[in-house]
Amino acid sequence: DSNDDIEDVSLFDADDDVSRRSRKSKIRHPVASFFHLFFRVSAVVVYLLCELLTSSFIACMVTIILLLSCDFWTVKNITGRLMVGLRWWNQVDDDGRSHWVFEARKVSAQRSKTSSEAESRIFWLGLIICPIIWVIFAFSALFSFKVKWLAVVVMGVVLQGANLYGYIRCKVGSRKNLTSMATNYLGKQFLRQVRSSGLWKTS
């Protein structure tokens, strides 16, 4: 959309050594960490077991969509901010233009404001793995001709994929091209492998 603008706010530097040293391994927000996984894991479990628990498709669909909606709101507004210091949202100005805002907390000297490594792992693993599971469900429903479940799994892919995309933009910088960044990363890994294998020779 040509009316969409992207705004950067305090972009996070993932390679900051000071931030890594200041992080602690303990979980500082256990309630947030629990609910970060609870809704999304519950939605997956209900999807897998609903046909065994009840014959009502409507009840299963409503339950899964409610869990996915709760997960989307919780991750977008609470757990991202508390666990990794990231937040994204959309706002519309007085002219009706849409602005996507990607915010990341700057590294602070106060350790109480920094997220722990354990929370960061929980956050990113949950954020990445669950959308992949919903994509697998989508292909499974499509190839097994379970058309009635497609709407449910597509909802799972869209809601959890949106959060994943938003937080990746917060993490790497909203104005960076994700494709070029991935290409640069793979290029660096290739050069590193060449050097370690001894094929890289200096004159």
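^ that was protein a. below is b, sequence first then the tokens
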Amino acid sequence: IMLSGGDDRLWKTWGFPDGNILLTGEGHTDWISGCCFRPSGTQLVTSSGDTTVRIWDLSRRGCILTLRGHSRAVRACSWHSCGDFVASASMDGTSKVWDVNSERCRYTLRGHEESVNSIEFLPFSSTVLTSSADKTLSLWDVRTVSRL
């Protein structure tokens, strides 16, 4: 199964090798910039130009949580390997780590001078890697909200 999102504001899951569309989700009001399966495979996260991050339940085929807090488009999203946290990177120059269980922002990472374009958790750690339009990469310890 593959996951995609795009300018049509939809995310889609695709079955292979046939390439059939298995599920489609709608709800964002602008382009979808990123999408990622939860490690358990039961949910997914999307990021969008509408400044939101959304959690989707595949069995319910709908959005179960909308995370708001970025002031500009969200460029990327990523699940932590434990499945309890989501990270987002935004054109507002910040990244956020969201606690899915409490449904709130746990940490805001500030330090890039321009848009943050990608974000990834290092597996089984509290370290996040971000890349920015300011031509830098940063490693962050989200427990201390500091660059490494």
